[in-house]
Automatic annotation (TrEMBL), chain A:
Keywords: Flavoprotein, Oxidoreductase. This is CO/xanthine dehydrogenase FAD-binding subunit. It comes from the Bacteria. Pfam families: FAD_binding_5 (PF00941). The keyword Oxidoreductase applies. The keyword Mitochondrion does not apply. Residues 1-159 form the FAD-binding PCMH-type domain. The lineage of its organism: Bacteria, Bacillati, Bacillota, Clostridia, Eubacteriales.
UniProtKB/TrEMBL annotation, chain B:
It is an enzyme of class 1 (oxidoreductase). PROSITE patterns: 2FE2S_FER_1 (PS00197), 2FE2S_FER_2 (PS51085). It comes from the Bacteria. Coiled coil: none annotated. Residues 1-76 form the 2Fe-2S ferredoxin-type domain. This is Carbon-monoxide dehydrogenase small subunit. One of its GO terms (molecular function) is anaerobic carbon-monoxide dehydrogenase activity. Keywords: 2Fe-2S, Iron, Iron-sulfur, Metal-binding, Oxidoreductase.
Length: 243, 150
């Protein structure tokens, strides 16, 4: 990564204006994936001074600022189990102190544990320009034009859980399963290897394990059939865990 | 860009390129405990503390660290020596390249949680790679350190 200009604005409107007026400008949240890219960035806009971090909860609605590091999600006492478990094995602690929930969402990464967890939670996103939208819609369609993600929010569930299979402790998941219980059960499966998808079931039973609603594909990590069997095994573990 | 870094309590002022990373800056300033390993924030050998938080210096822009407190192994040498004696007793080090990164992670952990159990230690150290060993020596040394050394 090469950077021509770097700014760290103190005002959200200024950050947005610089983003839309400068061709090739990018937002820096944690900067973890930006660091890995082999390109020259004409302008990097660091969101670190905009106060977009923090976790709050009121009346059952949980709000997480887009610049909140993943380590904060992992260690928070105010978040559901699915998010605490879903962030535990995202690289190491050092990376999780820098990688942010917003960066994890904006990349629309198929392997993202965070996106899978938030999808199971039926999370919504709040953007500076585009306003609110569901995470599902963002993952499926992206955005037209540039924007700055401000926060992600969801209703606290009755119960939740998350399991993934990884070849090494801090690796990307081969497949990931998140389950959230409210009046019904929402199951999200990520790293299929495609982007996370969700399905809602009235009850969790043996039929759920058939996972007919989900598509799996093969890549060099795993075959489609193996992924599906793994996902079913992880879901069964979650069910037997008392969900 | 003009930056001021507070490294182990001392102020350093200089010009930095916008894409310079702390790993290179710190090594240029003589803090050789900070190593370059994978350059992708995956291995942990470049770990330092910024404002008390463990971070990979290969992925932390120097300009982003302006006016922030940076701690390298040189700044916590007493604490590191205490743990290091247990590493020596267990024969942990082979090439020794990963040790500074391991030490920084351990110091960060003990600052957060003075009495972790060994599973918490293993989880915390998951981002530190050692190419020489199977990590058993590190775990024995840490358990011995926690058992009576602290």
């Amino acid at each position: 990564m090469r950077i021509t200009r770097y700014i760290q604005p103190n005002d959200l409107n200024e950050a947005y204006e610089r983003l839309v007026e400068t061709k090739g400008a990018v937002i820096m949240a944690g900067g973890m994936f930006l660091r890995l890219q082999h390109r020259t960035l004409p302008l990097v806009i660091d969101l670190g001074h905009l106060g977009l971090d923090g976790i709050s909860s009121a009346g059952g609605l949980v709000t997480i600022g887009a610049m909140t590091p993943l380590r904060c999600l992992e260690t928070s006492q105010d978040l559901p189990d699915i998010l605490k478990k879903g962030t535990r094995q995202v690289a190491g602690v050092a990376v999780r102190n820098m990688a942010t929930v917003g960066g994890s969402i904006m990349g629309r990464y198929p392997f993202s544990d965070v996106a899978c967890c938030l999808l199971a939670l039926d999370a919504k996103l709040k953007f500076h320009y585009h306003g609110e939208m569901t995470l599902q819609s963002f993952l499926d369609h992206g955005l037209e034009g540039e924007d700055i993600l401000l926060e992600v929010f969801f209703e606290m569930p009755e119960a939740s859980d998350y399991k993934s299979f990884r070849k090494t402790y801090t690796d990307f998941p081969t497949v990931a399963v998140g389950v959230v219980k409210r009046e019904s059960y929402t199951v999200a499966i990520g790293a299929r290897p495609g982007r996370a998808k969700k399905w809602t079931y009235d009850e969790m039973n043996r039929q759920t394990l058939a996972l007919e609603a989900f598509e799996f594909s093969s890549d060099r990590r795993a075959s489609a059939e193996y992924r599906k069997q793994l996902a079913a095994a992880l879901l069964e573990d979650i069910m037997e865990g008392g969900m | 860009m003009e930056v001021t870094l507070i490294i182990n309590g001392d102020h350093y002022g200089f010009s930095a390129e916008p894409d310079e990373v702390l790993l290179d800056t710190l090594r240029k300033l003589g803090f050789k405990s900070v190593k370059r390993g994978c350059d992708t924030a995956s291995c942990g050998v470049c770990n330092i503390l910024v404002d008390g938080k463990l971070v990979p210096s290969c992925a932390f822009l120097t300009v982003r660290a302006n006016r922030r407190n940076i701690t390298t192994l040189e700044g916590v040498s007493k604490q590191a020596e205490e743990i290091g004696n247990f590493f020596m007793a267990e024969g942990v080090e082979q090439c020794g390249f990963c040790t500074p990164g391991h030490m920084m992670s351990l110091i960060a952990l003990f600052n957060e949680n003075p009495h972790p159990d060994i599973e918490t230690v293993k989880h915390y150290l998951a981002g530190n790679m050692c190419r020489c060993s199977g990590y058993e020596g590190q775990h024995r040394a840490i358990e011995a350190f926690m058992g009576g050394g602290k």
